[in-house]
Amino acid sequence: MSTTTTLTTIHHFINGAETTGEGDRTQPVYNPATGQVAAELRLANEADLNTTVAAARKAADSWGDISLAKRTAVLFKFRELVAAHVDELAELITAEHGKVLSDAKGEIGRGLEVIEFACGIPQLLKGDYSDQVSTGIDVFSFREPLGVVAGITPFNFPVMVPLWMAPMAIATGNAFILKPSERDPSAPMLLAKLWKQAGLPDGVFQVLHGGKETVDGLLTHPDVDGISFVGSTPIAQYVHETATKQGKRVQALGGAKNHAIVMPDADLDNAADHLAAAAFGSAGERCMAISVAVAVGDAADLIVKKVEERALAIKVKNGTEPDADMGPVITPASKERIVKIVTEAETAGAAMVVDGRDLVVPGHEEGFWVGPTVIDHVSTEMTAYTEEIFGPVLVVVRVEDLEAGIKLINSNPYGNGTAIFTSSGANARKFQRSVTVGMVGINVPLPVPVAYHSFGGWKNSLFGDKHIYGPEGVSFYTRGKVITSRWPEPTHVSGASYNFPSN
Ligand code: NAD
């Protein structure tokens, strides 16, 4: 007996409803743990893009005018709904991304923090007032929404990264169009439904699926006022250049090569625990993953041994298994690329400490697996050092002292996150003051800022001026207006003055 399975189709969410759209192209969405196609995704065409932007434009006009009290009520409700759907969202993330369920819940938790911060929008939008700046004249300033903003997001955080953007954009009075990654689009669709359930008017949050064509459409559409992008560096740079040329406000967060310095004075067991977690958690597919351990002096042999022990103990399984520590990588192409880079390092003379290239997970032979991999004696010319691997690979570069470690980090073109493991306050302070990286951890390997600080790297990890979420998010999604006002007394007799106004 033959069984036929019908593939689920993932639609767009336009103007308050799920819709097939007019574009007739589709793309498969995989379950990376099984290697099977799980759904087909509708891709937008130009007509879909125009419909979405028109709905956003219309919605922005009324949403930007609605009272702060009403906006806040929707945000509070949305917060409750997301919290109530953590399990469902996590299952969708794991099914399409592959990360383990507990990690998926972790990313939703970080997204919730941003919604909670956005719930305080009345306080965040309070303006400034200067009384009597000149005789009878007052000046006040406040911030207004940009209008229509689009968010283009990567595969590795299908809930958290959209939530870095949308709650801030919506709280500040904008309409938001999400163009999520084509690889794991189901969780963002559930977010759209939760926004609607929370009472958000139609058109204020929409989801449009597509690839380069759709992104280009958003970057050049005259009715899109701002672009938030998170993804790889070449695309971030392209998005920044293309959209700024169109006069749009742009923040484009790119890739990373995050180094962690391990000093001989560090608690090496603690450092090894954190290094392993930061390198192999989520299969290394985090923009804040530690991918380079910079082992200083005598720390090197000891830390390599300790990380090796931890890497060998990691349980790599389907992320739905309760005891899984790490899941698969996102695509066969990603696996192939990771394996190629590891092999190049081996050929160039690096030492393979743990080799995850040939990992097979029983019962899931078709999945996209790479096991934890540790490579020692890596030099700065090897692709394992120069490329962002975005897989479960930790490379170890050995240096003589802290100064050499800082020099190495500062010479790297990326500047997203970095960390130092040390028990010396003096070392930590020297590091935090001299390193040219946006987010710095002291005995904290993944220094992702809480929602009331902003998130952003330096150098090739961010193009644009503003970091994402937090106070800089408020500033990014709004523009300032300054009012200078005079209310002459009815009895006042004035004559024209042709000089530049003075006090
Ligand atoms: P990606 O750059 O391939 O894709 C990101 C988005 O851009 C997707 O929505 C995709 O559809 C779109 N896109 C892809 N190619 C495009 C093109 N040629 N023109 C226009 N749009 C295009 O990134 P990814 O593989 O989905 O995500 C992984 C990358 O994201 C890594 O480099 C990682 O470091 C980075 N990342 C950075 C941060 C950060 O905060 N700096 C956070 C998460 C991920």
Stretches where pLDDT is under 50 for at least 5 consecutive residues are: none
Structural class: alpha/beta
By DSSP (H or I, 4+ residues per run), the number of helices equals 16
Mean of residue pLDDT? 97
Through-space gap between termini = 91 Å
Query: What is the second-level CATH architecture of the largest domain?
Result: 3-Layer(aba) Sandwich
Within CATH, the superfamily of the largest domain carries the name Aldehyde Dehydrogenase, Chain A, domain 1
| Beta-strand content estimate | 15-25%
Q: Key terms for this structure?
A:
globular, NAD, methylmalonate-semialdehyde dehydrogenase (acylating, NAD) activity, alpha/beta, 23 strands, 503 residues, 16 helices, Ald_DH_N, oxidoreductase, binds nicotinamide-adenine-dinucleotide, six-stranded mixed β-sheet, seven-stranded mixed β-sheet, Aldehyde Dehydrogenase, Chain A, domain 2, Aldehyde Dehydrogenase, Chain A, domain 1
Structure overview:
The chain is of the alpha/beta class and 503 residues long. The protein folds into 2 domains: 8-254 and 461-482, Aldehyde Dehydrogenase, Chain A, domain 1; 258-442, Aldehyde Dehydrogenase, Chain A, domain 2 (3-Layer(aba) Sandwich). The protein has helices spanning 46-63, 68-84, 86-97, 101-118, 121-124, 160-171, 186-197, 212-220, 233-245, 268-280, 299-313, 332-347, 383-386, 402-411, 425-434, 470-476, and strands at residues 8-10, 12-14, 17-19, 26-31, 36-42, 128-134, 137-145, 148-152, 175-179, 205-207, 226-230, 249-253, 258-262, 290-296, 351-354, 373-376, 393-399, 414-415, 417-421, 439-442, 458-459, 462-463, 478-486. The strands form 6 sheets. Strands 15-16-17-14-13-19-20 form a 7-stranded mixed beta sheet, sandwiched between helices. The protein has a 6-stranded mixed beta sheet with strand order 10-9-8-11-12-22, with helices on both faces. Strands 1-5-4 form a 3-stranded mixed beta sheet, with helices on one face. Strand 16 (373-376), helix 13 (383-386) and strand 17 (393-399) form a beta-alpha-beta unit. The chain is globular. The model has no long low-confidence stretch (mean pLDDT 97). The chain binds nicotinamide-adenine-dinucleotide. Nicotinamide-adenine-dinucleotide is lined by residues 152-157, 161, 179, 181-182, 211-212, 215, 230-232, 235, 253-256, 287, 388, 390, 416, 457, 461.
